[in-house]
Write a structure and sequence with these properties.
Elements: H1 3-12, H2 15-41, H3 46-62, E1 64-69, E2 78-82, H4 88-96, E3 100-104, H5 113-119, E4 123-125, H6 133-145, E5 150-152, E6 178-179, E7 182-183, E8 185-196, E9 199-200, H7 202-205, H8 217-226, E10 230-236, H9 248-268
Parallel strand pairs: 1-10, 2-5, 2-8, 3-4, 3-5
Antiparallel strand pairs: 6-7, 8-9, 8-10
Helix pairs in contact: 2-3, 2-8, 3-4
Length: 277
């Protein structure tokens, strides 16, 4: 966050609110961790429902209002592909999608958040290891074959939230998988923070949500706890399958364009297009 943005965020934030939110967040997390750990250990169906409930409450604790547009695909396992600008995307998408995330392998070693990611049955991949593409494809495919929906951030890194970076095509190899006799459903999803206390967020304050570049995590997280209510828009775009495209690159490009248009609409305040009849 720049000096101007940080100063503005501090002016809007409340340390008292931040302390209360932090205490409630930690208490809520400590209460749910053993419950989810048990559900995962015994392979209870609740291991997929608890994270969504957990993230919904976390969003409320953090003052994040999630506005959903479009319809989430629900027929069979789905590969959701989304833009990525913050660790807060996990809470927002986790509150509306019953699925597991695909994350870079480094996340597994993060203190606290790495443990939470493992409890949500995150699939960890080595994004820079080109030689391991087939292994990663098989790992993702095994989860999809088991009926698990997955949430993928194909940009490979987080952005400033004002734009969508090109999608990397390597992990789209799993889209060629067939679930039974049908191709895997792939659904593009746009996510964008749009308002702070009801006021359009704009470029200056979007870094209050976005975490990217060389930002330090702890100060950014504290800013999030202290700020007022944020509105984040999630748009589900029409689902597709690899059968409609000539290659996985063509599929990745289509998803990137759909997501980019959704982000542009959200940050500019334009209404989404009417649903097809």
């Amino acid at each position: 966050m720049t000096a101007v943005d940080a100063t503005g965020a501090r002016a809007l934030g409340s340390p008292v609110r931040g302390g209360l939110r932090l205490a409630v967040y930690l208490l809520w997390t400590l209460l749910l961790v053993p419950v989810q750990a048990l559900a995962v250990a015994v392979r209870s169906p609740l291991r997929f429902r608890i994270p969504r409930f957990y993230h919904r409450v976390c969003a409320a604790i953090l003052g994040i209002g999630v506005v959903v547009r479009g319809e989430r695909a629900t027929d069979g396992p789905v590969l959701f592909v989304s833009n990525h600008s913050s660790y807060l995307d996990i809470t927002v998408l986790g509150s509306v999608i019953p699925g597991s995330f695909v994350a870079k392998s480094e996340v597994a070693g993060w203190p606290f958040f790495g443990a939470l990611a493992k409890l949500q049955q995150t699939v960890f991949v080595e994004r820079k290891a080109r030689s391991g593409v087939e292994k990663q494809r098989d790992e993702l495919g095994a989860r999809l074959d088991a009926g698990d929906s997955l949430i993928l951030f194909p940009e490979g890194t987080s952005s400033d939230g004002n734009r969508t970076l090109p999608f990397k095509t390597a992990l789209f190899a799993v889209a060629a998988r067939r679930i039974g006799d049908r191709p895997l459903t792939v659904q593009p999803v746009s996510i964008a923070p749009t308002r702070l206390d009801g006021i359009p967020m704009g470029i200056a304050f979007r870094p209050c949500y976005a975490w990217y570049g060389d930002m330090d995590l702890a100060p950014h997280l504290w800013t999030v706890f202290t700020l007022g209510r944020m509105t984040v828009e999630v748009e589900f775009h029409p689902p597709v399958t690899i059968d409609g495209f000539s290659s996985r690159k063509a599929l990745a490009d289509h998803c990137q364009r759909a997501v980019a248009r959704g982000v542009e609409r959200a940050v500019s305040g334009k209404p989404p297009p009417p649903a097809a009849a």
